[in-house]
Amino acid sequence: MSTRKTYRELADLWGISLSAAKQRVRRYDWFRQTANDGSVTVVVPDDSPHSPFNSTSKNQEKSEENELLKQALETIDRLQERSDQRIKELTDSLLEERAKSSSLSVRLEKAEAALGGYIRSQSQSGVRIRSKPTFSSLIKRLLKP
Q1: Do residue 46 and residue 67 come from a single domain?
Q2: What's the CA gap between 28 and 23, in Å, rounded?
Q3: Cα separation of 94 and 85, whole Å?
Q4: Which stretches of sequence are listed as region Disordered (predicted)?
């Protein structure tokens, strides 16, 4: 079965310009008939995949595309949630490490000051130390709470 349409009707159905509709009809090699008044009608086969009336395949394709897009968006949303959670975990960890670092910096400054004072007091008193204490032993003594 086939349907007869003018170029203008085909252009409107396809949503394209008149010249583009004429080009499509030539490309698909559909039969064209010129009437005595000069108007041209095109015989559009109903079973053609290019027919503007064959919308079931187009609707199927669009629904498949929509389903794929939904799945892609759901995957993106899940990945975004995981990324946000990981960012929060890393931020919390960073803040904890910064707090530890700050605490250790304060303790180190105290230890350096105490060590400097100990060395100055020993050199000023003129006491000769037979065996010099190691740095680690001094730090351990100074850092005792």
Answers
A1: no
A2: 9
A3: 14
A4: 41-67
Query: 26 to each of 42, 49, 57, 74, 81, how far by Cα in Å?
Result: 10, 15, 23, 43, 52
Neighbour tally for 52: CB within 10 Å: 19
Query: Which structural domain range is residue 23 located in?
Result: 2-53
Question: Quick one: 76 and 135 in the same domain?
Answer: yes
> What pLDDT, in 10s, does the model give residues 28-83?
998 999 989 988 999 988 777 667 766 555 566 777 888 899 999 999 999 999 99
The number of domains in the chain is 2
Q: Which residues contact 45 (CB under 8 A, 6 or more apart)?
A: 2, 30, 51
**49 and 100 share one domain:** no
How far is 138 from 133, CA to CA, in rounded Å? 7
Is the pTM higher than 0.85? The answer reads no
